[in-house]
Design goal:
about 425 residues; alpha/beta; Creatine Amidinohydrolase, Chain A, domain 1; Creatine Amidinohydrolase; 2 domains; 6-stranded mixed β-sheet; 15 strands; about 20% strand; globular; disordered C terminus
Length: about 425
């Protein structure tokens, strides 16, 4: 189970909520462990998830009947006890609905794959028996299946936190006039920023994949390599390790070069996903010989990282870390350095409450480190006419300090100009 239940209950109590209603795919996955095909298509309002505050009430996943076969084949795809299915739209016909009932209900059969006549293999017999439990329970669409899930959990008159309050208005018009909703985009993030152990293991893997891929990408540097090739190399290296690349941002001196130049300082900011959780890393490299000022500044930034990781523990404020890092880097001989921004990492690149809509900066309160938060500190630097530096690592907050999820080796990478690309990539492994 990905969900940090104790944290969810704590935050629901803090905000006076009777439950959570997830519409966004990230939050559905977080509450249920399920990321189905319609979610992969980013088809909103086709899946929902409900987590009641009452621990005895059933949590629910709303999914189209087409997805039931996948849930049968892989029962550990979700832990929730109440699967509320609705008929697939192409099989919906108004003649199947009884207009005299309170809620329109799909036909007794709903959607179902045909069954071959005659003897069936044991696994097929198991499926036929399992799917029979949904007979007569299919809703006509996802919204009515959601209504059923709320009634099953006794939440008809509840105050729910939801990441899309439009759904509350729909449910009010569907016969739940006493249902209330609270905009909960930041509430979900407040819950998610403290990770469960299963989440931390996924994030550990994401960090390892990302670092291996970024090392291989840097090792492929050679004079004359089209800079656009770097992201292709990174994407490929991530995929080879079972992840999914989100982006690789490379920075240079001034306008982006068409090809890697000798002695050119290049930054690498790589973001990837593994099982929908993010790995985030930053490195700097030179193909050739770094200048003395580059070496001095890179060493100063490394010192800043050491200062940060030496002071972070639960309860420390992000702004205090920023001040300490900037002060340390400046005193180490890097005047002008000014950006050191900590952020939680997880199902989103920035996995903690942020101001949204008309909310002003600071309206969500101070960034504070919590035990089992996974974070990075973004430390980019760009100076017109000089170039870029960037370092970043994925780190977990423990009870007494921090645990790096990747090497935290932010030293400047120097790739000799005469290193064959294949040998360089092999060495990076």
């Amino acid at each position: 189970m990905l969900l940090n239940k104790p944290r969810a209950y704590e935050i629901m109590d803090k905000h006076g909520l009777d439950g959570l209603l997830a519409v966004n795919q990230v939050n559905i996955y977080y509450l249920t462990d399920y990321w189905g095909p319609l979610m992969r298509m980013r088809r909103t309002f086709s899946n929902y998830a409900v987590l009641p505050r009452n621990e005895a009430a059933p949590a629910a996943l709303i999914a189209t009947a087409v997805e039931l076969s996948r849930l049968f084949e892989t029962p550990d795809m979700t832990w929730v006890p109440n699967i509320c299915a609705y008929t697939h739209p192409v099989f919906a016909d108004k003649r199947d609905f009884d207009p005299n009932t309170e809620d329109p209900t799909a036909s007794q059969e709903g959607f179902g794959w045909p069954v071959k006549p005659g003897d069936l293999a044991p696994v097929d017999l198991d499926y036929v028996k399992w799917i029979a439990q949904f007979k007569g329970r299919y809703s006509v669409n996802a919204a009515y299946a959601l209504k059923k899930a709320l009634k099953d959990a006794g939440l008809e008159k509840a105050k729910l936190g939801t990441d899309d309050p439009r759904v509350i208005a729909w449910l009010n018009g569907m016969g739940l006039p006493d249902l209330k909703g609270v905009e909960a985009t930041t509430i979900f993030r407040e819950i998610r920023m403290v990770k469960s152990e299963p989440e931390i293991e996924i994030l550990r893997k994401a960090a390892a994949i990302n670092e291996a891929a970024i090392n291989a990408t840097i090792a492929s540097l050679r004079v004359g390599l089209p800079q656009t090739e770097l992201e292709i190399i990174y994407n490929t290296e991530i995929a080879k390790r079972g992840g999914k690349a989100v982006y690789l941002s490379t920075g240079t001196n001034g306008k982006r070069k068409s090809a890697v130049q000798r002695d050119q300082l290049i930054t690498f900011d790589g973001l990837c996903e593994y099982r929908h959780y993010h790995g985030d890393i930053g490195r700097s490299a030179v193909c050739g010989e770094p200048t003395p000022d580059v070496l001095k500044r890179a060493a100063a930034v490394k010192l800043g990282c050491d200062v940060a990781y030496g002071m972070i523990k639960p309860g420390v404020k992000g702004k205090d870390v920023t001040r300490a890092v900037v002060d340390a880097v400046t005193k180490a001989g890097f005047p002008g350095f000014f950006v050191a921004t900590p952020h939680s990492v997880g199902l989103e690149h920035t996995d903690h409450p942020l101001p949204i809509g008309p909310q002003l900066p600071g309206s969500q309160g101070e960034f504070v480190f919590h035990e089992n938060m996974v974070f990075t500190i973004d430390m980019p630097y760009y100076e017109v006419g000089w170039g870029n530096l960037h370092v970043e690592d994925t780190v977990r907050v423990t009870r007494t300090g921090v645990e790096p999820l990747n090497s935290c080796d932010v030293s400047l990478r120097v790739v000799p100009v005469d290193t064959p690309p294949a040998d360089a990539v092999k060495a990076a492994e």
